[in-house]
Amino acid sequence: MRTYGMGYWEILDLPVSLFWIVNRNISRLQAEEDLRRFDATRAAQSSDEHAAKEIRQSYVKELSGTFVQAEELDRNALYALKAKL
User: Fold this and answer.
1) What is the pLDDT of residue 83?
2) How far apart are CA 22 and CA 5, in angstroms?
3) 14: part of which helix (H) or strand (E)?
4) Where are the domains of the chain?
5) Contacts of 26 (CB under 8 A, 6+ apart)
6) Chain center to CA of 23
């Protein structure tokens, strides 16, 4: 299952009910990928520059929410913790 990054034996180890749940979601995920490709193709072929920028901005906005920046490491707290060990 390319969609989930699972191998053949991992799929066989799934309980039957979970297998069918996963199977139903594959079509949904593939449809989402197809819609993204359709939007990107439409924007590339469009003479309307605004439409292409709008689609690109929607993808950038979606990507910006997926990354979580780590807080700055508090070295003093780390040294204090190491001293307790």
Assistant:
1) 92
2) 12
3) none
4) 8-84
5) 1, 3, 4
6) 18
Q: Which two tokens stand for residue 72?
A: 């700055």
pLDDT, tens digit only, all 85 positions of the chain: 566 788 888 888 889 988 888 888 888 778 888 888 888 888 788 777 887 788 778 777 776 655 555 677 788 988 998 998 8
Q: Tell me, what DSSP letter sits at residue 47?
A: S
Crossing angle for the helix pair 16-45 and 49-64, nearest 10 degrees? Answer: 140
**Six-digit token string for 36:** 């993204």
Residue 2: name the closest of 31, 26, 38 by CA. Answer: 26
For the record, the structure tokens of 59 come out as 């993808």
Query: Structure pTM?
Result: 0.47
DSSP result, 48-79: -HHHHHHHHHHHHHHHHTT--PPPPP-HHHHH
